[in-house]
Amino acid sequence: MVSFPAPPTAVGSSALRVQLTYWWRHRRLARLSAPRLFTEWVQHRKLNDRDPRLPILADKVLVKDWVAERLGPEWITPTLWAGKVMPTRPDWPLPVIVKSRHGCNQNMVVRSLADHREAVRRARRWAGRPYGAWLDEWLYGEITRGVIVEPFIGTGEALPIDYKIFVFAGVARFVQVHLGRGEQHRWIVFDRAWKRVSLPTDDPDPVMPESLERMLAAAEELGREFPFVRVDFYEIDGAPRFGELTFYPGSGLEPIQPMRLDLLMGLLWTAAAADWLERGMLVHA
């Protein structure tokens, strides 16, 4: 059973720093007190939402128990090892993927002993540094710093396609499909009926995953206690596999195009937050 600590004190957040980073990426100021766009809501959450569950559920080690309780253990990729200092030689079959447990975009596929030596060096660097402070992503500072090793679940050399489901007030609304991970990373957004809602690109629309309905239902189960969360999945041999929970997608700094999609997502978050407040479920609006 996963237990949650008392809320941490809201320290270290800076509205000025949030505005500067938002301006840097979007060339406009964010409406922090009355957000309308999705990217503005992410900034609002950084500054105001101190839900004590968030660090637990963003921890790549601890979240697995919480998800297994709700969906079942078959949704979880097993942990081969977790700690702060990786062994100098692998005690597990290769290939594997090595990730920091407390940060984002800190991962490496290990296919050989030479890769493992490089992963040991990177893991030491990841575990030795806090994550998220300069972007005011407070929850990452509450997670125990360390590294997790999992079996590689891709096919051949390719990383699996990432299906990131945007859940507002327990309803799955959009699926962001990430292609070319580790190479030419790019993404496309679909609605739940698999109609593209992001801008046209040179990529043909990927085939709808066989397990999409199961992913959507699972995302709604995991997201029903929050006004917004992104729930990530993979599909392995036709079966869905949980990836992680994300509360600050792209730190709210990655442009969402077209702008009307940023606005539509923002309006869904606005409605969810208003509903949470009305029902007394949201302490930090």
UniProtKB/TrEMBL annotation:
Taxonomy, superkingdom: Bacteria
Pfam families named among the record's database cross-references: ATPgrasp_TupA
Name of the protein in question: ATP-grasp fold amidoligase family protein
